[in-house]
Amino acid sequence: MAFGFISGAKESRVLPPALQKSTAEGTAKYCEALGTQDIIPAALKQEIDTLCRTQTTQQAHCYNEGKGFFLLINNFTQSRKGTQVDEDNLLRFFRDTLSYDCLIKSDLNHEELHAVLALVQNHLHSGTSLGKERTSYASFVLAVLSHGTEKGIKTIDEVVTTIDEILSYFKADSIRSMIGRPKILIIQACRGREDQLGIEADSEVQEDAEKVVPSTPVDADTLIAYSTTQSYRSWRRHETGSWFIHHLVQILLNYYEHEHLLDMLTMVNCQVAQEQTAGSHLNRSGIKQMPCQVSTLTKKLYFTRLSGIKSVSD
Fold first, then answer.
1. Residues 6+ apart with CB under 8 A from 226
2. How far apart are CA 71 and CA 63, in angstroms?
3. Do 102 and 310 form a contact (C-beta atoms < 8 A)?
4. Which range among 46-50, 91-95, 136-140, 241-245 shows the weakest confidence by mean pLDDT?
5. How far apart are alpha carbons 80 and 191 in whole angstroms?
6. Residue 17 to residues 22, 101, 160, 181: CA-CA distances in angstroms?
7. β 153-154/160-161 pair status
8. Contact between residue 311 and residue 104 where contact means Cβ atoms under 8 Å apart
9. Distances from the Cα of 262 to the Cαs of 29, 60, 79, 87, in angstroms?
10. Which residue in the list 190, 246, 247, 260 is annotated as catalytic?
11. How far apart are CA 211 and CA 77, in angstroms?
């Protein structure tokens, strides 16, 4: 599958988890229906066997499908023009498309923020805090839309909460029921006051590391998707929302049925990197922005559409 903005992309035969199981089962039923292996050409049988083994292996390297929970925290809603567009866009994907259970909170102070994080931590652990039915979640997504500094994100009382403080609520040792399940943080906030400029240069860094461990690290299965790199500002448009959330939701809506999350975030990086400010009496032209991710995911995460929605908001 090729994408218009990725040069040299190769077609892939990898199927999303929703199709992998059905493909393997369908192939097995096809072989069984023929009644005898003798009438299957040897080359075709070998290809079928290889495909089944490949799909089974790929499925083992993907997170399980299932109901997800989405927490959206949107601060400074009056002064951060365009942030309501970001909220609507995120809900369009996680609530309306994927049918995640949702909790939306706006304009929280420091104490309220930690109270909400503790509430959701308990809900993920027990599945009973926000409703009568017990729900075991396959994934958790937290999106924070706010002002920020190099140290973290701001609440409306101008107190800074670090990302590590937020993460501490959702690590494996805090929610044992979510061990081995993906926890995704989407951070739309400045990470400093510097402006990032564009230069004509190419660089490529690739690091591969594979370790086998007998137990699960407390930091495992987490991904933080930052709207910008450390020290730099993050940009919004009043009409379409922030550059990062706008492109993130567009990519998710267009590709979630075929691509896993990290590959989609790479597409988002590409799209946001092409943006730049036009210039005004407040800001100079040509200012850039570069999203980045910090991942300890141990498997591929594919989003799937499920039925049933529970949404709770202010």
1. 187, 191, 291, 292, 293, 294
2. 20
3. yes
4. 46-50
5. 15
6. 9, 21, 39, 15
7. antiparallel
8. yes
9. 33, 17, 32, 22
10. 190
11. 43
Any long-range contacts for 246-249 (C-beta under 8 Å, 24+ apart)? Answer: 246/85, 246/86, 246/89, 247/271, 247/272, 248/186, 249/89, 249/90, 249/92, 249/93
Does residue 147 have an active-site annotation? yes
Asked if the model's pLDDT at residue 213 lies above 50, the reply is no
Residue 177 identity (one-letter amino acid): S
* Alpha-carbon Rg for the chain in angstroms: 22
> Which strands make up the sheet holding 183-188, listed edge to edge?
292-295, 222-226, 183-188, 139-145, 68-74, 101-106, 311-313
User: pLDDT for 19-53, tens place per residue?
Assistant: 454 555 555 555 555 555 555 666 666 666 666 55
Query: 67-80: b or e for each residue (b if 16 or more CB lie within 10 Å)?
Result: bbbbbbbbbbeeeb
Q: Is 62 a catalytic residue?
A: no
Is the distance from CB of 181 to CB of 140 less than 8 angstroms?
Answer: yes
CB 102 within 8 A of CB 94: yes
Pairwise CA distance, residues 26 & 177, whole Å: 33
Tokens matching residue 84: 């309501």
- Rounded CA separation 225/160 (Å): 19
**CA–CA–CA angle 289, 245, 219 (5° rounding):** 85
Catalytic residue among 110, 114, 147, 258: 147
Q: Which two tokens stand for residue 265?
A: 């975030």
pLDDT in tens, 82-91: 999 999 999 9
